[in-house]
Amino acid sequence: MDRPPLPIRLIESLREFGARIIDVREWCAERWDLWFGRSVDFVLDAFDSFESLESATIRIVGVLLWPFAAIARLLRVPALFRWVIELPGNTAWWLYQAMAWSAERLHLGGAFARFSDFVYWLFTPVRAFGFFLYAWCVTRKPRDLALATPAILMLLPFVYVAIAGASRSSGVVAGRYRDAVKEYELAGDQETADLMRRKLEQLGVSTSRSDFIDALNLADRGDLDEARAKMEQLAPLDNPDDAPGYAPAHRWWVQHLLADKTQDGDMPLDRGARLALAAQHLERIRAAEGDSEPLAATQAYLLAEQGDIKQALAAITPYAEESLKASSMRLRLLVMDKQQAAAVGQAQAFLARFDASPPDPVSADDHRSRALAGRLLGRRLTVEESLVELTRLDPDAADARQQLAVISLQLAQQSLTSQSLDGGLLAERVIRAERMGASADAVGQTLQAIVIQRRGSEACRAAWNQMLASPDSTVTLLEIAGSLAASTGEITQARKAFWQVTESGDAPAVVWNNLAWTLLQEPLPQPTEALKAVNKALAKHPQDPHFRETRGQALLRLKQWRDAIADLEFALNAMPDSRDAHSGLATAYEAIGDLQLADVHRRLLGE
Q1: Which of 69, 143, 336, 523 has the fewest CB atoms nearer than 10 Å to its CB?
Q2: What's the domain range around 122?
Q3: Mean pLDDT of the chain
Q4: How far is CA 128 from CA 48, 140, 157, 594, in A?
Q5: Helical H runs in 106-169?
Q6: pLDDT tens by residue, 370-415
Q7: Where are the transmembrane segments (predicted)?
Q8: Does the CA dihedral 204-210-215-218 come out positive or negative?
Q9: How far apart are CA 598 and CA 584, in angstroms?
Q10: Residue that finishes a domain, picked among 264, 289, 314
Q11: Largest Cα–Cα distance in the chain?
């Protein structure tokens, strides 16, 4: 077959090339339509969601801004608003007309028409979206659109976040969160810093803080081996100085090593070895954070535990002038090192700082240091006040209770010689001393002095009455007080003390017996009540000779001679030298007519 002429073949080739260009154009337009449709799909969804928000906002804002809407209608603002909405479309049409006119003048009308056709296909989805926006706007009143402006402003932050999140990588965001963590930690806002760390974890970025918290949680659940493994990774001891590890993890190790909480597993059991290991962790903390008062205090404590008091003093002294806690530690170390003169000077500095600016709250340790400073300076009132507060915070502190008992009795005995004696304070000190464990002999000496002086001292009478009535007075204190009052002839006061003890109905047998004895004495003996009281004692100890003798005396007063003889004979068998028993039996035998036995007991009395 003959080939077509060359011109015809060229024309066919150009035709096929043009067809392929059209195919490429259609392929590009198809891909463009698909991409653009997906891109603006969320906008259309937003418009659907916006309808309800727009309606509610228009109603609310319309009520609030109706004066401004009226003024806008007067100024023909709606017409201006519509002109602004239509301005982009009108401008585009004017530009197209200008370009078409220019192409005709340059005899490029055909080329411009083909270019316009291509652009028409390419921008069909954009044009459709624009027509949608235009239709949406023109179907609403300008007034409603103006009133819906607050709703649009509410959506702008979400639009910004969506665009910013899409345009920035997670690495940039993570870097900003890390900077925020450091900033808040320096500012001391640990709560916000932890929030920033959680944001980092949501981005898949692990932090030392999160690993540290995981280790703490493992320790709380009892998984100590796993917790220590994590802490060792966070706080290695073999890293160079420029990579000391995570300081809180080192601090966890120090606390546990000093508290002997790592005796299981592969940790050293020897106290010295643990202290040496704690010292290494302290050095890593210093490399990570530098010197600080808490670090110096911990180091001083560690050195003191190791027996190196001099080095401990050297570590804490630079902070003692500015910090109350450092001043407290230096005071104790000076006392331990037996530097009396320096300790007195430090005690004065500590008390001056404490009185000028007491900590809030005051800890038990602060009260201990204040009591120590008071003892060094001879300030008994300061010692007493500090120990009272200390025992309130730590009721089981045996050393504090013992010291408070001693100082309370000393101040009570000292106040008895004062011209300005405060009876209430005196009673409070005696009661406190007995409750804190003071010996019965020491308390008894003070009570005896109060009993002796009460006749001529209003303050001592007030102190005595307060001790008898105070709910803080113990059974032991009231028993001692009653016995002392009875021994000095203060029968009425003795009765008050014993009644106070037996008021609840549950008292020691000896107290019931003592109460019965006082009820048999002048003034105004009460033998019936005495019999009731001594029977309470005998119900607990029916064979006690002292109690049987007391009951025998009560029965004598009630003239129940034979019952009295039985009790007194029982008591006399156990106590053959009891003059009260012989006297009572002589009286009882004489009353029943047995004069011979009555004479026997009188002869034994020496009558």
Answers
A1: 523
A2: 6-167
A3: 79
A4: 17, 19, 27, 139
A5: 109-122, 124-138, 142-147, 149-167
A6: 999 999 999 999 999 999 999 999 999 999 999 999 999 999 999 9
A7: 118-138, 145-163
A8: negative
A9: 10
A10: 289
A11: 181
**Does residue 160 share a domain with residue 11?**
yes
Residues of the chain with pLDDT > 70: what percent?
69
The C-alpha atoms of residue 306 and residue 317 are separated, in whole angstroms, by 18
pLDDT at 1: 46
Amino acid in position 159: V
Q: What distance lies between CA 203 and its chain's CA centroid? A: 32
Residues 183 and 129 in one domain: no
- pLDDT of 3 higher than 90: no
First to last CA, the chain: 178
Percentage, residues of the chain above pLDDT 90 = 24
Helix, strand, or coil (residue 134): helix
Q: What is the pLDDT of residues 331-350, one digit of tens each?
A: 999 999 999 999 999 999 99
The first and second tokens of residue 51, run together, are: 């309808």
Size of the chain, expressed as the number of residues it contains: 607
Does 555 share its domain with 591? yes
Whether residue 178 sits in one domain with residue 126: no
Distance between CA 81 and CA 504 in Å, rounded? 93
Q: Are residues 237 and 185 in the same domain?
A: yes
**What is the H or E stretch that residue 119 is in?**
helix 109-122
Q: Which residue has the tokens 């008895």?
A: 416
Q: What share of the chain is helix, strand, coil (3-state, %, to 5)?
A: 80, 0, 20
Q: CA torsion, points 147, 153, 155, 161, in degrees to nearest 10? A: 170
Amino acid found at 251: R
Instruction: Identify the residue with better confidence: 67 or 61.
Output: 67
Pair 24, 154 in one domain: yes
Tokens of 354: 């404490």
